[in-house]
């Protein structure tokens, strides 16, 4: 059975992966010549960038240094994400298969409409995410036209291919093509990674919301004197089953995304720290845009992780609001077990820190403190 709205989201992720020739969700996918070319170009950039930093470190401005390092770690993060898709292809297919199958566990029109609503929101967010990333890629590629910089040979990025002088027309074109391919592969790799992570979290939120709808339907059955106790007991057993399945799904995405979340924290934290050193001297610089991109990435991940926390936090109240005093003692015991099992917080972790808004606030507080110290040092000079 196919879910058309979920297929739209999966198609979005697959389209992003296909830019690097790594559409692992294609049943008969095999590495192609384009896969090898795109990945080779992308993997070569960190090596070129590191060599460029070593050779030009002495006469680089701090702004150029921060930009080079920020782009280097961003590229490494995208490479890690693409390799994660390729190496753990079967696991990613299982995760997406689980997300797809969750909808068909419920036989309720209200829950079906709920999944439609969540998939619509998820797809709209994916489109907005795509627009943000592609616009940033295009701005990088058009930057040499709008703001030509001879120090970087009027290229989008400061790093060049070793032993190929971009001051010559043909070599300039070669460097520009290399950077263009690398930028689009990296951006689409991040889009696929970001889109799949948000899809998993949104699916978990939707399943918890579906449990609340099932609890409302159960309360209606309790209030209806024509409904037999066996039917109520059966409905409660179904809710307990779906709740256990939801918790197993959350553990699955935590296991799959934990290392990816850690990578995101490290990369974005590094970008923020590097850019703050430049912003402390002058806020009107290219580092400001990189800083905003890093903050945006951390915020979105923490925001969606916090949504899951909020949804689960309201579940015990929904269970307790049932007319449990009208039930048999045996049914009340089952309800008590469900209530106790739903009370622990559901937190996604980046191994070292939880994925919620408290973490985002803590990171921003630390960044502001760091910025204040740097600003005072600049003022004292």
TrEMBL record:
<keyword id="KW-0807">Transducer</keyword>
<keyword id="KW-0812">Transmembrane</keyword>
<keyword id="KW-0552">Olfaction</keyword>
<feature type="transmembrane region" description="Helical">
    <location>
        <begin position="259"/>
        <end position="280"/>
    </location>
</feature>
<dbReference type="Pfam" id="PF02949">
    <property type="entry name" value="7tm_6"/>
</dbReference>
<keyword id="KW-0675">Receptor</keyword>
<keyword id="KW-0716">Sensory transduction</keyword>
<keyword id="KW-1133">Transmembrane helix</keyword>
<comment type="similarity">
    <text>Belongs to the insect chemoreceptor superfamily. Heteromeric odorant receptor channel (TC 1.A.69) family.</text>
</comment>
<feature type="transmembrane region" description="Helical">
    <location>
        <begin position="33"/>
        <end position="53"/>
    </location>
</feature>
<keyword id="KW-1003">Cell membrane</keyword>
<feature type="transmembrane region" description="Helical">
    <location>
        <begin position="65"/>
        <end position="87"/>
    </location>
</feature>
<feature type="transmembrane region" description="Helical">
    <location>
        <begin position="346"/>
        <end position="371"/>
    </location>
</feature>
<protein>
    <recommendedName>
        <fullName>Odorant receptor</fullName>
    </recommendedName>
</protein>
<dbReference type="InterPro" id="IPR004117">
    <property type="entry name" value="7tm6_olfct_rcpt"/>
</dbReference>
<keyword id="KW-0472">Membrane</keyword>
<feature type="transmembrane region" description="Helical">
    <location>
        <begin position="128"/>
        <end position="147"/>
    </location>
</feature>
<feature type="transmembrane region" description="Helical">
    <location>
        <begin position="286"/>
        <end position="309"/>
    </location>
</feature>
């Amino acid at each position: 059975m196919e879910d058309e709205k979920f297929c739209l989201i999966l198609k979005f992720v697959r389209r992003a992966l296909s830019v690097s020739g790594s559409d692992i969700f294609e049943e008969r996918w095999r590495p192609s010549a384009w896969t090898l070319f795109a990945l080779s170009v992308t993997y070569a950039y960190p090596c070129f960038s590191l060599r460029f930093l070593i050779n030009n470190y002495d006469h680089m401005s701090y702004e150029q240094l921060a930009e080079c390092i920020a782009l280097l770690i961003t590229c490494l993060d995208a490479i890690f994400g693409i390799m994660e898709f390729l190496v753990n292809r079967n696991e990613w297919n299982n995760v997406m298969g689980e997300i797809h199958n969750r909808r068909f566990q419920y036989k309720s029109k209200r829950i079906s409409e709920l999944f439609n609503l969540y998939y619509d929101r998820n797809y709209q967010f994916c489109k907005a995410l795509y627009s943000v990333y592609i616009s940033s890629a295009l701005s990088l590629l058009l930057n040499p036209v709008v703001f030509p910089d001879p120090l970087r040979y009027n290229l989008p990025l400061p790093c060049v291919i070793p032993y190929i002088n971009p001051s010559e027309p043909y070599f300039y074109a070669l460097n520009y093509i290399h950077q263009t391919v690398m930028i689009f592969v990296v951006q689409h790799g991040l889009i696929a990674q970001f889109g799949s992570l948000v899809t998993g979290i949104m699916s978990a939120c939707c399943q918890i919301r579906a449990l609340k709808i099932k609890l409302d339907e159960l309360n209606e059955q309790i209030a209806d004197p024509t409904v037999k106790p066996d039917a109520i007991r059966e409905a409660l057993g179904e809710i307990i089953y779906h709740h256990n399945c939801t918790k197993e799904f959350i553990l699955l995405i935590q296991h799959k995304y934990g290392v990816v979340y850690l990578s995101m924290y490290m990369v974005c934290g590094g970008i923020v720290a590097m850019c703050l050193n430049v912003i402390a001297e002058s806020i009107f610089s290219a580092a400001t845009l990189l800083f905003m991109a890093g903050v945006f990435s951390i915020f979105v991940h923490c925001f969606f992780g916090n949504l899951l926390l909020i949804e689960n936090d309201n579940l015990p109240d929904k269970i307790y609001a049932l007319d449990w005093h009208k039930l048999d003692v045996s049914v009340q015991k089952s309800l008590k077990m469900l209530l106790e099992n739903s009370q622990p917080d559901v937190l996604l972790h980046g191994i070292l820190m939880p994925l919620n808004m408290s973490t985002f606030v803590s990171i921003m507080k630390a960044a502001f403190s760091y910025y204040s110290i740097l600003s005072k040092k600049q003022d004292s000079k």
